[in-house]
Amino acid sequence: MKAEGPLLETLTHRLAETPEDFLAEPRIGANGRIHVAAVAADLAKALGINMEVADVAALAGADPRRDRNRLSITLLLCWLLADEWFAKNKLPAEAVLELFARGSAQLAEQVASARFVTDPDRREELARFSLARLGYRPAGETVAQSQDRLTSLSSAERARVVQASRAAEERARAIREALAKKAAEESADKFTRE
Amino acid sequence: MLQFLREHPHAPIYRNQSGNRLTHEDIEQVRRFERETFAAEVGWRTGEHPAWLDDFVGRCFAEVPFYRRYGSRPKNFADIPTISRAELSRDIAQFVPDTVSTQRLINFRTSGTTGHALLLASHPVVAAMYLAFHKKALRRFGIELRYGRGQVGVVLVGYQRKCFTYVSVNPTMNESGLAKINLHPDDWRDPEDRAKYLDALAPEVFTGDPISFAELAKLPLQTKPRALISTSMALLPGWREQLERRFGCPVLDVYSMNEAGPVAVADAAAGGHVLLQHGMYVEVVDSEGRALPPGERGEVTLSGGFNFCLPLLRYRTGDFAALSFKGPEPVLVGLEGRPPVRFRTMTGEKINNIEVTHLLQPFSISQYTLHQKQDGGLSLRVAGLSHQTDSVRQALLQLFGAGQPLLVETVDSFDGKVVQYTSDLREETA
In chain B, which among 303-362 make CB contacts under 8 A with chain A? Predict the structure, then answer.
């Protein structure tokens, strides 16, 4: 965060106008259309970063049920980092690859990818999160300001997710208990067997 | 009615208790659903989706924890990942929508013939809704149920060593009687009571499976049901015709499962199983989950359904068929449970199990299994086949070749569901 990066508004505006191709379904097995690893590799090359086989493999995905949200976010990151400001500034290769692989996984646990485009707070979070991972802060902000704002955005979201996750666990437990108590054969007549 | 059913001098030993657990509001809901089911057309145009599907997918992604974890909703329905029994068996709670109250949840347990045991979420209203689809299926064959107060509407017959049995009444059919019985002699004081009791009940419909109907057919019944509904396992046309002759009424082969309820009914005039649920979208997919065009065989995959506690989104059933269209009506052609198995003749020719099914269809077989051993020898075990053993052997030898080692064994019955086709040979799955 030590270095000053682009204007935040440039990035959030860019996210709001993400083209269809970067919102398309990531290719996983026979599902989807966009090969995220190939898009990431092209971008990395344009940024002067060499992606090793293992880096590419990490962006392949194996199970759409588990990997599609993460790869959809990687695709959004590719669109974000294709902004001309990043091309003009030498980005740290390791940080970029880390953002593609683990950064997207971290975000995917909390937010469905489309919200990083449609929700203003999440657009700002993705822009700030990406800049921070690359060692930058938005232009015109002090380190403290940018740290505070990112913490506030992500903590609020994290708190929401933690609360939702607790509520979901509680409900799942209640459902399991309710089901365990009442076998259908004893509690509802059915007219055929299966 | 309950007293009559339970205390009849020839009544079986009822081992359990059940009940419909329906409130007045539930009964109204079930009746509304029945009217909607009768009025609705089932189907969609080739290459299109039914109009309701878009909203249904949206609700799944918004309200169902399991689907929510997929992330954002894909633009194309075909990009939604498929699920199978394995996902349902891992934690069914993840499939219950946030909007469903836990207060009246009930469970259906199913062991299946292979793989994962399932505990499924359901509701008394869902159980009562089954009847709408049975009535819709019966209407297709010109039968309107008439039973009401003071009569017995349905008797569910099982034939197992151990079976859940009870009596109840149906409030949506004017408190008419319903009994679930086990024809196994162990459940009766005197095996001869079985026919006397069923004659006294004189139900309008028997429901059961090919095995329990085989036992029912042996009884000297005088009562004349208006229909038999067979579920739970494959009913071969030859056996169905024999049952129809025996009982003098239509025998419906309903494709039904705990996960989705009654999905389709066999109709020879339509060339297969026609769909029953107006809120169910059916695809046939390949091993990668890609929807196949009409006419190609693949795995039957379901989206939608009337069980509001368990909305299915591209659920792979483990059953196989081709989807074809008779006008706007989708039909499942060549429906088979379990993945296809390829047998091998002694000359190395591959034979898909569906060819064996077609071959055995004319015979009066209530249930069978065919297994191929490592040395290529075939072993056919059949129930319900009395005098046609030689004809079946000849038919199989015609298909596999005269030099095919073949053991045909008749059994009284199988104990429940079976895996019909198995092979010890490698690459047996087609």
Answer: none
